[in-house]
Amino acid sequence: EAKARGEGGYERYRPGMEARGAERSRRAAALQTAILEDQLVVFYQPVVTLPDGRITGAEALVRWQHPVDGLLGPNAFIDTAEQTGLIIPLGTWVLRAATHEAATWPGDHTVSVNVSARQLREVGFSAVVAEALHDSGLPPRRLTVEITESVAVGGGATHDNLSDLRAMGVRLSLDDFGTGASTLTLLASCPVNQIKLDRSFVGDGGQDAIADAVAQMARAFGMQAVAEGIETAEQATRMARLGYDRAQGFYFARPMNSVHFRDRLTTADTDVPVTSA
Ligand code: C2E
Ligand code: MG
Ligand code: MG
Ligand code: MG
């Protein structure tokens, strides 16, 4: 997208551009309707302990139940939301839905909510979080806000929002760790409670030196280390051995609707233990 823009951020004219512009505003209007008419749904993917595979909580992942196209994943609409600013109402909606849902879970299970850099720049974002916690009754320590390295660019109210969240007792997690350019810069200026190693480093063992170094760094900083995108027993065992204490991935469970997730929590025998860790 950035590449297509000329100097000053304006797109240079190309034939067919009007059609694309029209398509973009049509998608934006549809997304706005989706937010207003409750077509969005939150799915929950279990986060488990390593090596015993016990569920400690879930990551909230937004879906769009589109009236014509069916269930759409975030890759189909998050970019549009970011570009149009609709990520602000969308993000608030997800935050409120996820905190209200998690407040009804048994035990002290946690919920992780993805927050974009755009939301964090907004003055009053931390107040939106405080209100969601207050209205739902969810204790702040049971909410984790997932940020990405793009937050390091900062600007706007980013710094104030992050320090407000920390002061409230909300936990912070650094998502997709290792894929951004400014990881260490961000860690230096913004301590987080958790880092989630990007799934591109889980693979078949070829990246274990990096996975190992990240786990050691997490330990040194007193951060929890989560391995994302675990698809096989072998990967789970390897990540457990490297020192990851939490995991997420299709091997344990796919993202599921709130009813199915609640069933998983109330059924005792669904843990997926990792063998020979
Ligand atoms: P993410 O935060 O890194 O979330 C993890 C993504 O990896 C999810 O994709 C999940 O379904 C997928 N995943 C989990 N386990 C596995 C696995 O074992 N293998 C593979 N191949 N994939 C796995 P999803 O739900 O499509 O979400 C994609 C991204 O969209 C998220 O990445 C996050 O960056 C963004 N996103 C999702 N919900 C929200 C939201 O409410 N707000 C914002 N701002 N972004 C969101
Ligand atoms: Mg995430
Ligand atoms: Mg991730
Ligand atoms: Mg991601």
Give a description of the structure.
By secondary structure, this protein is α/β, with parallel strands linked by helices. Helix content is 40%, strand content 19%. The protein has 10 helices and 9 strands. The chain has an 8-stranded mixed barrel with strand order 1-2-4-5-6-7-8-9, surrounded by 5 helices. Strand 2 and strand 3 form a beta hairpin. Helix 3 (87-102) packs parallel to helix 5 (125-136). It starts with 16 loop residues before the first helix and ends in an 11-residue tail after the last helix. Residues 1-9 have low confidence and may be disordered. The site of one magnesium ion has 4 residues, from strand 6. One magnesium ion (MG) binds at residues 59, 114, 146, 175. Keywords: Membrane, Transmembrane, Transmembrane helix.
Enumerate the distinct ligands. Answer: ligand C2E, magnesium ion
Structural class: alpha/beta
Biggest β-sheet, characterized? 8 strands, mixed, barrel
Strand content: 15-25%
Number of DSSP-assigned strands: 9
Share of helix, binned: 25-40%
Give unreliable regions as ranges: 1-9
Strand order of the largest sheet: 1-2-4-5-6-7-8-9
**Rounded mean pLDDT score:** 90
Work out the helix count. Answer: 10
Oligomeric state of shown chains? single chain
Q: Gap between N and C termini, in Å? A: 43 Å
**Rg on CA atoms, Å:** 19 Å
Apparent shape: globular
User: Which H/E pattern describes the elements?
Assistant: HEEEHHEHHEHEHEHEHEH
